[in-house]
Design goal:
Layout (H helix, E strand, L loop, with lengths): L14 H9 L14 E10 L3 H10 L6 E4 L23 E5 L2 E6 L10 E7 L5 H6 L5 H4 L6 E7 L9 E9 L1 H12 L10 E2 L26 E6 L3 H9 L4 E4 L5 E6 L7
Antiparallel strand pairs: 1-5, 1-10, 1-11, 2-5, 3-4, 3-10, 6-7, 7-9, 8-9
């Protein structure tokens, strides 16, 4: 039986119901534990002028930026992830960036949408968590009702055009044996970042204190456990800061786009 926090509503297993609740403003929280087995995605929306460079950036950095959906210029729809998926309304919380600075957060971007926008959806580590649970591995931040902890690392992504910056990683604690099992499971899910990039030794990634994440909420590491780090689709937000684009829009960390596609069927574009 899947361990679902009591805070999740009964409709949280149905991806279409999750999106409907978000659209009508009934859900503004994080999406960890929702729509088990279905794809969740990180979001980057930017003017067409920079779309080719960002596409190249994703292709050059497939571990933190696995591209699983892309819109036509001016269209907010991503039919490959679900017939009614709409990037303007289906994310619980958005971030708006201007000249590389976070200008604010909002819950609907219909008024900000432009005819030259291109939307990119990147795979998310929240997508593989049901596979871990099905294998008997607990996912602590889900059990605790928290946003997964995320960290900027010293690992640099491959630059393309104006896009460059550090890889961001997410973390889940496991014993070494559990970490090995998690790695085997996730290696078969490249659309959700694939296998971990690091097991233990946070300092090797330039993380000074695992208890102080750059995004998300701290997760306890119990005796006998080590931190296990996966590539994270928040990486483009670090790239957006470096690129200093006049305008781009992303998801707020942990507040993902939920699609209908089973994670095993997701293809990296």
């Amino acid at each position: 039986m899947r361990n679902v926090p009591a805070a999740l509503p009964a409709w949280a297993d149905d991806p279409a119901a999750v999106r409907a609740a978000i659209r009508r403003g009934a859900w503004r929280g994080h999406t960890a534990g929702m729509a088990p087995g279905r794809v969740q995605g990180n979001l980057m929306i930017l003017p067409r002028r920079w779309a080719d460079d960002f596409l190249g950036y994703c292709r050059a950095n497939p571990v933190p930026c696995p591209l699983i959906g892309m819109t036509e210029p001016g269209s907010p729809l991503v039919p490959v992830l679900g017939e009614d998926v709409d990037l303007r309304t289906d994310v619980p919380r958005y971030r708006v960036w201007r000249d590389g600075v976070l200008a604010g957060e909002c819950e609907d971007i219909t008024a900000l949408w432009r005819d030259d926008f291109v939307g990119f959806v990147l795979g998310c580590s929240l997508s593989f968590e049901h596979a871990l649970q099905a294998a008997g591995l607990a996912v602590r931040h889900v059990d605790e009702g928290k946003v997964v902890p995320m960290y900027r690392t010293r690992l640099q992504t491959v630059p393309v055009g104006p896009f460059r910056g550090p890889m961001v990683v997410s973390m889940r604690p496991y014993t070494p044996a559990q970490a090995a099992l998690a790695a085997r499971i996730c290696a078969g899910l490249p659309g959700a970042h694939g296998a971990p990039v690091q097991v233990g030794d946070a300092a090797a990634l330039g993380i000074a204190d695992v208890g102080v994440p750059d995004e998300g909420e701290p997760t306890a590491i119990l005796p006998g456990e080590v931190p296990v780090f996966w590539g994270c689709g928040v990486t483009p937000q670090a790239a957006a800061i470096e690129a200093r684009l006049p305008l781009c829009i992303t998801h707020a960390p942990g507040h993902m786009l939920v699609g209908d596609t089973p994670i095993e069927a997701v293809r990296v574009l």
